[in-house]
Write a structure and sequence with these properties.
By secondary structure, the chain is mostly helical. It has one domain (22-165): LemA-like domain (de novo design (two linked rop proteins)). It has helices at residues 2-64, 69-84, 88-109, 113-116, 119-154, 158-165. Helix 2 (69-84) runs antiparallel to helix 3 (88-109). The longest helix has 63 residues, at 2-64. The protein is rod-shaped. Mean pLDDT is 82; it is low at 185-189.
């Protein structure tokens, strides 16, 4: 009887030694996965805030710069693409395109001093600038959490737990191809 008790205790101890790291690793991965989703939602919130500001900015510029329809059209088109983006990669590409279009729009504004002095335009510009800063910080937060998550699921023994429970690596928020290039603005038209 004593031998059976000892054997049972050894088996229970071995199971605990195995189970505790598995449970701990699983719970850590769940927590990190939730943080990734939360920070991704924060990016979406800031992108939506920017999307909401853009029509007012575009309409204000339209009133002063009707001949700049190509630049205005590129902002509207880029905004629509961002609204339809589904994945992190699609959002990053559409976001880069919208940022580029907004940069061109703001360069065009330089040609209209009366627009720059318009209070509504100034308020919208300040709000947009603040939103751009929040988007930048949200992207950084997202990539930091994704890095921590991806590292956790790749480390041993978490990699085994991740494989068993289907934890897959998350994609980083990357700038689109060509985002490092300076936008070309042509005032000769």
């Amino acid at each position: 009887m004593k031998r059976t008790s000892r054997t049972l205790l050894v088996i229970v101890a071995i199971l605990l030694i195995v189970a505790v790291p598995v449970i701990s690793g699983y719970n850590k991965m769940i927590g990190l996965e939730q943080r990734v989703e939360t920070v991704e939602a924060n990016i979406d919130t800031e992108l939506q805030r920017r999307n909401d500001l853009i029509p007012n900015l575009v309409n204000t510029v339209k009133g002063y710069a009707t001949q700049e329809s190509e630049v205005i059209g590129s902002v509207v088109e880029a905004r629509a693409k961002l609204g339809g983006a589904q994945t992190v990669e699609e959002r990053a590409n559409a976001d880069a395109q919208l940022s580029s279009a907004l940069s061109r729009l703001l360069v065009v504004v330089e040609r209209y001093p009366e627009l720059k002095s318009n209070q509504n335009f100034r308020d919208l510009s300040v709000a947009l600038e603040g939103t751009e800063n929040r988007i930048k910080i949200a992207r950084q937060d997202y990539n930091n959490v994704v890095s921590e998550y991806n590292t956790t699921i790749r480390r041993f023994p978490n990699s085994i737990v991740a494989g068993v429970f289907g934890f897959d690596q998350k994609q980083y928020y990357k700038a689109a191809e060509g985002a490092k290039e300076v936008p070309k603005v042509d005032f000769t038209k």
